[in-house]
């Protein structure tokens, strides 16, 4: 067990006191705290050493409602911090998240909150999902149509068949029609012979 712990500890990167790593920062929208309100979240990660200053600002004015979380360790030995601000929807425009750290050499990181760009990204993602669903439905419909054509080949239209079969039976050479013609001819000949005998 001790050997396993030593191996795990050895596998983790260790940043000494002299190691300086610049932070990465980004903003996002958290769960809505209530109707008409926004939860703005500023994420700061990958920095070393641990001390860092993060604040939501409007111009040069610090926002008193800023809530700072705990500085948590990352798996690579760097640090992570999450800072939030609860504002009304109309107050979000113009806010920025400012980050100060010893690795930045006095050049603060300033991330502007732009709710419109986030909304645009969400709209684009929604449109892409809808288009993908439409393509999938269209492909499935075409596949089903193809399978039906294979299982059920083309059947002639009954109306068309009826029209093509309504010819005069006498011209079709049907046996029943031929027998009827012979009977009529024999009857005619018999009547003709009877008429001749009466004349003689």
UniProtKB/TrEMBL annotation:
CDD domains: IgC1_CD1
Source superkingdom: Eukaryota
Boundaries of every Ig-like domain copy: 13-103
Organism: Equus caballus
Name by which UniProt lists this protein: CD1e1 molecule
One GO biological process term: immune system process
Membrane topology annotation: Single-pass type I membrane protein
Regions crossing the membrane: 118-137
Signal peptide: 1-16
Organism phylogeny: Eukaryota, Metazoa, Chordata, Craniata, Vertebrata
Protein location: Cell membrane; Endosome membrane
Keywords: Endosome, Glycoprotein, Immunity, Immunoglobulin domain, Membrane, Signal, Transmembrane, Transmembrane helix
PROSITE patterns xref list: IG_LIKE
A GO cellular-component term linked to this record: endosome membrane
Pfam families: C1-set (PF07654)
InterPro entries: Ig-like_dom, Ig-like_dom_sf, Ig-like_fold, Ig_C1-set, MHC_class-I_related
Entry-linked Gene3D superfamilies: Immunoglobulins (2.60.40.10)
